[in-house]
Design brief:
The protein is mainly alpha-helical. It has a domain of about 80 residues. The protein has five helices and no strands. The radius of gyration is 44 Å and the shape is elongated. The N and C termini lie far apart (about 105 Å).
Amino acid sequence: MKLALFQQIVELNQSFDHLIAGLTKLESVPFFQRDLIQHARSDVEIARVYANREFFDNFEEIVENDAKWAYRFQRAYDAKLKDRDDIYLEIRNSEERRKRKGLPSRVVILPDWDMSDEDRYDEERTANRKKSAARRHRTNRKSPKKSKSVAQEARPLAASKEGRRRP
């Protein structure tokens, strides 16, 4: 909630109260026309009503926005805490209720179902990827680039020297 907004509306209403009290005091002074002071008081009361109405009309929107934010925050927090496998348990319980009522099942749950099946599959898949990556790495190391032998490197050098000899 916006505490500062509440404080401002309270201060505004206190200011209206002070103004009304001042106008009431002026009514008893013979110098002022009583009906004009009463008219001014009614104008101040109308202004107070308009200000409060405006505040509370907008306040409803503020509360709704705060409520939407709070619900989104709560859902995100609940989703963070929720186990992804809970849906299987909820379905199983729902199907058991339907069975007790004599209704046909909507979903078939495998009899040998295990909640950790997917986790084991993911772990095996990760392990297989690591093994294949290690094999690829070893294969690349065993077959280094072929380097020229010393004799092959010497031939072009000798040929170029022969071409430079003078007859």
